[in-house]
Specification:
heterodimer, A: 126 residues, alpha+beta, Immunoglobulin-like, 5-stranded mixed sheet, 4-stranded mixed sheet, 21% helix, globular, B: 385 residues, mainly beta, Porin, 16-stranded antiparallel barrel, 3 helices, 50% strand
Chain lengths: 126, 385
């Protein structure tokens, strides 16, 4: 009897969680890369948000890397589509992103910032 | 390499055919699998610039203008080296007329934060549109704008150190450097301050120069820039007081198929009466250096063919006005052949976003009434890898 009760409790827990947890909508952010800048170069998202970054180039091949964020993709040349990277904003803070493929004399200037707002701050802002 | 006039047409025809073949081949190749694994690049990057110039009533010239290699190394995510080595005109024989081997960049970046980073070594002077953005596919025209050649002496690089970074939500970007100054004894009437660049070669730093640039990038497609350079430039003749000041503003805007550019630059040189006198005593010829130089240009480009990779053609027209004798010291008369304006009309075809096949026609007029208008046909092939 006791194992049956435990199984029922666990099952009800799964059902409750399954019914209440809506799949979070992924926010899509379009980024343009060109010598020697990203636009936008500053992106603000809320903690807990999942974002899909679609990066297109206006000229040559660029890189897109979020330092410490586990994202590193090559951005194809102009007219050859977009690079898609997913980023989960689990920890609040500032994340630097940068081009990591040499693209010309100003390559090291090509950087930007993702700001992940803490959940309470984000709710207050809304 | 010089050509007789009769050979010029043949060479031009061959070049045009070669460029067309270069362009048509990728257009025909629609098999996307052929692109798999491309582009590839080794540990080096770089760009090349190959030109055919045919001035009116003169022999045409084939010139491998620039062969540039860039190398980089990251010691860590925050410590990076970038180097740029350039061979100009393909051949070096000790004098600039034969070619130049130049170390245009060799610096270490200490990347501290988005707002504050330190750069030291051989750096590009942060001024104007072209000096820091000079890869051939980036600009229209076989040759760089005249204003970016005789008013702003690009490529202008110098030994020094400074700060760079962004602020205001990355909408504003700045550079502020301390650099070796110009050598005023090398200034000239026709090319202004260009000859005074020390190029980091045992550069005299009796005085230092300050250079700064601020860019606004808060609107998609728009970049606004303002630059300034200031330095005492008479170290080779210490009794003079030849302060040089440069102010520059520029704008670039791109929307859909349209791209617009504009730039204005003004140079003032102090104590030019005594500077001309000193050079006259040294060389026997008064160089007629002006106390004020001024130049501006506007350019409109339109992507005529915008059908994807290898179907990519930009037409453009540029008007330039540049005067290296704009203001003279009392008692000196300006040489009006150096008060010039130019119209450049041409096209850039991209068989690949990193390859630019260029052709343009240039009219350069002057105010002298004696020196005739100069017309030049230019064809170029430039690429980045």
């Amino acid at each position: 009897m006791k194992p049956l009760l435990i199984a029922l409790v666990l099952l009800s827990n799964v059902v409750v969680h399954g019914s209440s947890a809506q799949p979070a909508a992924t926010k899509v952010i379009e980024i343009t890369a060109e010598r020697f800048e990203f636009f936008p170069a500053e992106i603000t998202i809320d903690q807990g948000e999942d974002v899909e970054l679609r990066i297109t180039s206006e000229d040559t091949v660029h890189g897109f890397r979020i330092v410490g964020g586990g994202v590193s993709v090559a951005v194809p040349k102009r007219g050859r589509g977009a690079a898609v990277a997913k980023f989960s904003a689990t920890t609040p803070g500032r994340y630097r992103f940068e081009c990591h493929r040499m693209c010309g004399a100003g390559h090291n200037f090509m950087r930007g910032t993702i700001i992940v707002r803490a959940q309470s701050t984000g709710a207050a802002a809304k | 390499m010089r050509f007789e006039r009769s050979e010029c047409c043949r060479v031009a025809a061959i070049l045009v055919c070669a460029f067309l073949v270069t362009g048509i081949a990728p257009a025909a190749a629609q098999d996307t699998n052929a692109d798999a694994g491309y582009p590839t690049t080794g540990p080096l990057s770089g760009y090349m610039d190959f030109h055919f110039n045919k001035p009116d009533k003169q022999d045409g010239v084939l010139d491998f203008h620039r062969f540039v290699l860039l190398m980089s190394h990251s010691f860590s995510p925050r410590l990076r080296f970038v180097g740029e080595l350039e061979l100009e005109h393909a051949f070096v024989e000790g004098l600039e007329e034969s070619g130049e081997l130049e170390l245009e960049q060799a610096y270490v970046d200490f990347l501290l934060s988005s707002g504050l980073n330190v750069r030291a070594g051989m750096v590009l002077v942060p001024i104007g549109i072209i000096n820091e953005r000079h890869e051939p596919p980036v600009y229209n025209g076989v040759e760089r704008p005249f204003v970016d050649t005789v008013i702003i002496p690009s490529t202008w690089f110098e030994a020094g150190a400074g700060l760079h970074g962004t602020f205001a939500g990355n909408r504003l970007r700045y550079r502020a450097y301390v650099l070796a100054p110009l050598n005023a004894l090398e200034f000239s009437a026709d090319e202004g301050i260009r000859g005074g660049r020390q190029k980091g070669a045992e550069a005299d730093v009796r005085n230092v120069a300050f250079a700064g640039r601020l860019e606004f990038r808060g609107v998609r497609g728009l970049t606004l820039g303002a630059s300034a350079w200031s330095g005492e430039s008479s170290f080779a003749a210490p009794r003079l007081d030849t302060g040089v000041r440069i102010g520059e503003v520029d704008a670039r805007y791109r929307h859909d198929r349209l791209e617009l550019r504009a730039q204005f630059a003004n140079v003032t040189i102090g104590d030019t009466l005594r500077l001309n006198d000193a050079i006259g005593r040294l060389t026997g010829i008064s160089p007629n250096i002006a106390r004020g130089l001024r130049g501006f240009y506007t350019e409109a480009g339109y992507r005529i063919w915008n059908a994807g990779v290898s179907r990519d053609l930009v037409g453009f027209v540029r008007y330039e006005n540049f005067d290296t004798q704009h203001r003279m010291a009392a008692g000196l008369l300006p040489l009006k052949q150096f008060d010039r304006d130019a119209v450049v009309v041409g096209a850039t075809y991209y068989p690949d976003p990193d390859i630019a096949v260029k052709a343009d026609y240039v009219w350069v007029r002057n105010q002298s009434g004696i020196v005739p208008t100069r017309r030049t046909l230019n064809i170029g092939l430039g690429w980045w890898f």
